[in-house]
Each structure stands twice: as C-alpha cells, then as structure tokens.
Design a protein that fits this description.
Elements: H1 15-21, H2 33-39, H3 62-73, H4 85-94, H5 98-121, H6 127-139, H7 165-188, H8 190-210, H9 221-236, H10 241-261, H11 272-275, H12 279-292, H13 303-314, E1 316-318, E2 321-322, H14 336-346, H15 349-361, H16 372-378, H17 386-400, E3 411-414, E4 419-423, E5 432-437, E6 440-441, E7 453-457, E8 460-463, E9 494-495, E10 504-508, E11 510-516, E12 520-526, E13 537-547, E14 551-560, E15 569-574, E16 577-580, E17 586-589, E18 595-599, E19 605-612, H18 617-622, E20 627-634, E21 640-649
Antiparallel strand pairs: 1-2, 3-4, 4-5, 5-7, 6-10, 7-8, 9-15, 11-12, 12-13, 13-14, 14-21, 15-20, 16-17, 17-18, 18-21, 19-20
Length: 651
C-alpha cells in the first residue's frame, strides 16, 4: 500500500526540547530561516505522494476505485457552466450565500472526482474533463465566496484580490492537480500546466506574500485554514527558494498566533465541526513541514498540540453525534483522513480508533468518500479537501486494519472552555450522556448559552442544542441574536423575569465546578452574570447531575432581587414526542421509541409545550421530525427558591 508518511527522525538542532519550552513565537522562534533552509526540501523536490501513472495508485481497493470512477463518469462530456454574476450578487441583495457557494463547491468537487478517477484508472479518459475544469476555474475573476468579498457586489479585477477560505482551498486543489497531472496535461497541451502555474503564482503565492491580510494575525480558524492551503501551494508550486522561505516564515507567524491564542486544554470554542478547520488545519501545516523535512521538524510531543487532538474525541457522543455548542452541528461525519493522521502524529489511540470506527461505519473500503452522509451533514465534498482525499487513498488499508472502537469515555472536563461531559456507563452508549458548559457569551460563533446542557440516551438525542441554521448575511451581522437558534430561550436555560441572556464577554459563568463519584457525576455553575441587570437576578446556581442509577437531575437554586410582572421559565428543547396529561405529568418519547418520565414539583412549576416545524436545511439534516420546547414556568412569587426536575427512563 502507498505510504505518504515519513519516519520520524531526531531533530538535528535539538528542536524538540526547544519547541516544548518555547514561550513566544512557538513555531517561528524555533524554525529560523537558517533551519528552514537546511531542513526543508528544495523547490520542486517535494514528493509527498506518488504522481499520476505510478503503479501504487492501482493498489487502492477495487470498490473505492470503482466508486470514484462512477462518480466522475456522471459528468463526462457535460459542459462546464459559468455561474451567473447575479447569483454572486444575491448575497448582497437577499442575504442568500448558499446558492452561489453550492454551485462553486460542486464544480470544484467535479474536478476533484475527475482527477482521482484518472489517478485510479490511468487510461486518459478523464484528462479532457480535467483540462476543461482547470481552464474554467482559471477563467474565473475570483475564487472565493460572495459572503467574504467586502468591497462590492461583484469582484473587480482591478482591485487587489482578497484571499478567503475558498480562494485558498481552490489554490490548494489546483496545486495538487498540477503536481499530480502535469505530464498528462502536457501531452495534450503544455499551455494548461503553464496557465495553472501562472494563476496559482500570481493569485495566491505572490499576493499572500505581498498583502497584509487580516487573517494573518487574527488568531482564529481563518488563519490556520488558509495557511495550511497556502503551504501546500508553496511546497508544490513555488520555484524560487527565497520566496518559498519568505512564505513559510509568514505562515509560521500565523501559526504562532493561532497556537498562542488556543487554550491549554486544547478546546475549540467553535465546536467540533469547526475543529476540522481549526486545530486540524494547524496539524496539517505541521504534518507538511514534517514531510518536507524528512521527518526532522516534528512538534508532536507538545502537550497543547496533543490536547488539541484529544478535544475531538472528548466531544464524541455516539454514532455520528458530537457535542454541538456554538455554531457546531450535532451530526458530523469526521474527516477520517485528518483524524487518523492527527491521531498517529500525536500517538493518540482514541483519535486513531475514532477514525477507524467512522471508516468501518461508512464502509470506506468499498464506498465513495466524501459519501452521501458527508454531503448531507457537511454541505459539499469540496470542503473535504483534495489533499485530504489523496492521503486517505494512501491509507485505506491501514485504517481499515486498525481498531474500529469509538471512544466512549465516561467523563471529560475542558477547564478553559468549561465543558463537562459524562456518560452513565464507561465504554458504552447505554443509558444517559450529558454535556454542559459554562464559558461566556463572546466565544467564536457564539450562542447566548452559558450554563446550557444537552442530553442523549442510548446514543440518541433527547434534550438538544439546536445548532445553527444555514448561513446568510444575517448570521454574522448586527442582528445575529435576533435569530432564534442564537437565543438562550431556545437553549436548555431559564428566561428570568422575561429576560434572556446577553451577548458579550462580560456575560459569563461563575463558580464552575465538577464532582465525580461512583454514584454520580455533577456539573455546577452560577449563570446569573450571563443576564443583564434587568433580569434582577442575584445568583442562579444550576446543578446538573447524572446518577449511576439512571436518573438525570437539574436543580435550579436562585435568588432574585425582585420578581417582576414578566414570567420566569425554564426552556427544555426536546427532540421527540412530548405528552403532557391533564394532571401535568410529562412523558418524552425519543426517536428510537424509548420513553422517559419528567418529574418536577407541580407546586412550583407549570408546564407548557410548543412544537416547531424545522424547514431550514441544516437544522433539518439533524432534526427532521421537528422539535418541541417545554416551558416550565415558575408559579410562585418567591424571590429565593430552589426546585429540581428529574428525567428517568420508563422501563
């Protein structure tokens, strides 16, 4: 089987001990220009995987090979259509960004499938398709998405081009096409590969070096996502050694900022679906540097980097469900390529086994990836990354031969993010699982959700975090918190004296603690500070407990400065059927048919329910049967009180 990885060697300049102790400029202070020049392979010498025509591509499993070829054959002899300018403008007119993006992604994916099909078949059948796709993309005015183009309704060729996420992803894809297929393209016409080099050089490589883009110092996932793509283009296309080293030094500076901003617990406050293009993209750059230095540049022993990888399995629930606070989605098809390689890099068996579990679950030895589930839950195959697909093809046999055991750990604690997870039984999806958070309301992709929780039972969602609707211009605009999915009233949280939580760093959790014993696992948080002064709340201590006996309890212990005429109620977002009889008894039925009784103090709380039809495509992918909100209204006028509600399976 093809091997892309290079054996780890001892660093010549004692880099590993220095890296571990580095304080400022984690990457750039160690990898000086002199070290880079000595250790990084010379331009045009980078050979991370075999090129087209290499016999090793024929060793890919037959089922995988046939699946890619069938997908590519669907588009043979079809024209490559231009996307209308008015569709680009639609984002600025109506707020819709997906119509253009989906067409953009689908065309990129079409080219990727053609390239892989040609690699695996090696008969020349798809070369014309590849040429047409390359030419069409090279003719585009701009390679990015309209939501990221800020200076006008249409890209202007006379302006300095802004490089966004999908611009860089396109450059990365085209760099791989050039590296893999140059000889095959030249047989048809040398102009094609020449055009590819020119467009990548002028649009991506030269502009990245010359322009001071905000994402170079922003310390969030844009920087690490773009620089991982930039680095691939640098290593595969750049022929000038000085420019190559200049670019790597700039990339290291951006990596520094991302690393330094990241919490020591390795937690991604954007959620696990964004981890794929946050910590995972940082790893991608580190892995490229390792490959380009014959294994001598290796940061795998750093504890924070190890925690960045471990975060992913810590947020794993069951099946394809992950903890989904912020804009993360509850259902994710993990990128097996990056999860497996990251796990191998940091020697994390749980991460490696998670990749193996998904590969077996999704039949990666005989199916196509990205598969239908990936498209459903992660939008479009283009976001999978051509490089990631190529490395995955090299590793299929190895991954499928590994241990396909999902990481079902009993509890985890992210001290910086203040996220606690607990399951009733270790290494099992039986019984309850809950995740709860403290934090603050100025996190990346923030929802106003300090103190919320989600509850799963037997691996199925019961009390949920909705996630986020399909992105529009309003998602990241001034009216973000007018969207219902962002509001605390549509999370499992109280609305106090008619007041929801507010957005901002100051609206945060207090006194966050956890307690673990043989009999129970608990999370404690005071959420009062997450509300404005108009809520008139002194403290609101919330205790969330999972008992080993199978009871899930939430205790609300609060002191209000006054009780206004506005109502105070606790929201519970349910995925499943909710039945409330005339006596106020509440029964929940989950999607798998299991039944649960919600008991509460009927003298203090009065229930009410409302059902919400889900029409948004992103939400519907996870909550296709709609959701129900239970409101538990406080009936008394006591300023200081305490009440507990309990959920237990009906056996």
């Amino acid at each position: 089987m093809i091997k892309y990885r290079i054996k780890i060697l001892i660093l010549l300049f004692c880099i590993l001990p220095l890296v571990t102790n580095a304080q400022d400029g984690f990457f750039s202070s160690i990898l000086t220009r002199e070290i880079l020049d000595k250790e990084i392979v010379q331009p045009s010498g980078f050979r991370p995987i075999p090129k087209a025509g290499d016999a090793l591509w024929q060793q890919v499993p037959e089922g995988v090979k046939n699946a890619y070829i069938r997908e590519a054959e669907k588009n043979l002899n079809k024209p490559w259509e231009s996307i209308a300018a008015t569709e680009f403008m639609e984002f600025y007119i109506s707020g819709n960004r997906m119509k253009y993006e989906f067409k953009l992604f689908d065309q990129r994916s079409r080219l990727e499938f053609a390239v892989i099909a040609e690699l695996l078949e090696n008969k020349g059948r798809f070369v014309d398709e590849i040429i047409n796709g390359v030419w069409k993309i090279c003719e585009e005015t701009w390679w990015g998405a309209p939501a990221h183009y800020k200076t006008g309704m249409l890209p202007d060729k006379e302006e300095a081009m802004f490089i966004d996420l999908f611009f860089s992803e396109t450059a990365q894809m085209l760099s791989w096409v050039h590296y893999l297929m140059k000889d095959q393209l030249d047989e048809k016409s040398p102009v094609v590969s020449k055009r590819l080099e020119l467009e990548i050089q002028t649009r991506m490589l030269d502009d990245c070096l010359r322009q001071d883009f905000w994402w170079k110092s922003n310390k969030m996932n844009w920087g690490t996502w773009i620089t991982s793509n930039w680095l691939i283009s640098v290593m595969l296309i750049e022929t000038d050694r000085n420019k190559q080293l200049d670019a790597i030094q700039q990339i290291l500076k951006t990596m520094d900022g991302f690393y330094e901003e990241y919490p020591d617990d390795g937690g991604c406050d954007e959620g696990p679906s964004y981890w794929n293009r946050a910590a995972a993209s940082l790893f991608e750059s580190m892995d490229l540097l390792r490959m380009a230095s014959d294994g001598r540049i290796d940061f795998s022993s750093d504890e924070k980097i190890r925690q960045m990888g471990a975060y992913y399995w810590k947020m794993y629930i069951a099946g394809l469900y992950f903890v989904n606070f912020a804009d993360a989605r509850p259902t994710i098809v993990p990128n097996v390529s990056i999860v497996y390689r990251f796990g191998e890099y940091i020697h994390d068996d749980r991460l490696v086994n998670l990749a193996g579990y998904v590969a077996h679950r999704e039949n990666y030895d005989s199916g196509i990836f990205p598969n239908n589930d990936f498209v459903l839950y992660n939008d479009r195959p283009f976001l999978y990354g051509l490089g990631r697909q190529l490395f995955l093809l090299n590793l299929i046999d190895e991954i499928m031969a590994g241990n396909p055991a999902p990481p079902l750990v009993k509890n985890t604690w992210q001290s910086n993010l203040q996220i606690f997870t607990a399951r009733q039984f270790d290494e099992s999806t039986d019984g309850f699982y809950f995740a709860a958070k403290g934090g603050h309301n100025d996190e990346s992709h923030n929802h106003n959700d300090v103190g919320t929780f989600s509850l799963y039972s037997y691996g199925q969602p019961l009390l949920i975090d909705l996630g986020v609707e399909q992105y529009t211009k309003y998602t990241f605009g001034n009216n973000r918190y007018d969207l219902w999915t962002m509001q605390s009233a549509y999370h499992n949280l109280p609305t106090i004296n008619g007041i929801m939580q507010e957005a901002g760093r100051e609206f945060s959790a207090r006194n966050v603690k956890t307690r673990i014993s043989d009999k129970e696992q608990s999370f404690f948080v005071d959420i009062a500070k997450a509300y404005s002064k108009e809520a008139n709340v002194d403290f609101w201590n919330r205790t969330i407990t999972l008992k080993s006996s199978g009871e899930f309890l939430v205790t609300e212990d609060f002191n209000l400065l006054k009780v206004t005429g506005d109502s105070t109620f606790i929201s519970l977002m349910v995925y499943g059927d909710v039945y409330i009889n005339t006596n106020g008894d509440i029964t929940l039925t989950s999607d798998d048919g299991k039944r649960y009784r919600l008991t509460y103090d009927k003298k203090k709380l009065k229930p009410q329910k409302a059902y919400y039809v889900i029409k948004d495509p992103w939400l519907k992918a996870s909550w296709k049967k709609g959701v129900t909100r239970i409101k538990l209204f406080l009936t008394g006028r006591n300023k200081k009180d305490k009440t507990t509600y309990i959920l237990k399976e009906i056996l």
